[in-house]
Specification:
single chain, 4 domains, three-stranded antiparallel β-sheet, 8 helices, 8 strands, elongated, binds zinc ion
Length: about 260
């Protein structure tokens, strides 16, 4: 491109580095053109150019696709971007500057061509706790209160350094820095998805009749088996994030009534 020299590229990359940005995630030539060649080189022009030429998604990035199933469930599927596509689904022949869609092959679903506007960075779905005292809160006594990384380490796993929390389910796993990868994190979300799929009939029953959860329990002196309401409540205690909102609300009220009744007795 006319006017852009190797020195300019080096300087731009260096400046991005000082700002703790990864030059690979920016269209460096675009920034130089907007900030230094067509622009006046001021700090504001630079900032605007950097923002404009940020590549939110790159090949290899792990992303989440949201899928609606026919029976009314929302599923989150994860996979790496394999390549970019035009709006009509075709490949780009040359450099991709403003891609329209991404092609991915999530592990638990068919392949997709998804507009970038519908993609979410996988990291957005997780909270990463790094504070040692929080990561190891309630840690195992036999190991001086220190949790091991649960990644693939063989017999001598290192201590965990992070706790990854899947925001949608609240499920947690502890990893070392090396194992805190998109694959390991999305594995946690995949497990939540399998629970949702396996417990579909219970969720549908509670959707159809939320009062199921406040129904009478079995009398343990008379029958050994649990009543459907007991099972619904066990389910809600184990998988709170899967309980449909109306049932969750009724169950909350029910628990408050129970504790009032206990206090009065
Ligand atoms: Zn590890």
């Amino acid at each position: 491109m006319a006017g852009i020299t190797r020195e300019m590229r080096e300087q731009a990359r260096e400046e991005l580095g000082w700002e703790k940005r990864d030059p690979e995630r920016y269209d460096v030539d675009g920034i130089i053109r907007d900030a230094w060649i067509n622009g006046n080189g001021s700090e504001e022009t630079w900032k605007a150019a950097v923002e404009k030429h940020y590549k939110r998604f790159m090949v290899g990035d792990w992303v989440r696709v949201t899928v609606q199933t026919e029976d009314g469930f929302t599923e989150h599927h994860y996979g790496p971007i394999e390549n970019f596509r035009k709006a009509n689904g075709n490949h780009y022949r040359r450099n991709v500057t403003n891609p329209h869609s991404a092609f991915l092959h999530p592990e638990h679903t068919r392949s997709h061509v998804v507009p970038l506007a519908e993609l979410v960075e996988e990291i957005n779905d997780f909270e990463i706790v790094t504070e040692w005292s929080q990561v190891h809160k309630g840690g195992p006594q036999h190991n001086y209160g220190v949790y091991h990384c649960i990644g693939m380490h063989g017999p001598y796993p290192p201590p965990a350094t992070v706790m990854v929390i899947h925001k949608a389910s609240g499920r947690k796993k502890r990893f070392c820095d090396n194992c805190n990868t998109p694959q390991q994190r999305t594995g946690l979300a995949d497990e939540a998805l399998f629970y949702q799929r396996n417990l579909k009939s219970t969720i549908l029953a509670l959707r159809a009749d939320p009062t199921l959860i406040t129904g009478p329990g079995a009398d343990p002196r008379e029958v050994w088996e649990k009543a459907p309401a007991d099972e619904a409540r066990d389910f809600a205690d184990t998988f709170p994030w899967l309980v449909p909102a109306p049932a969750a609300e009724l169950y909350q009220q029910w628990k408050e009534e129970q504790s009032r009744a206990c206090a009065a007795a």
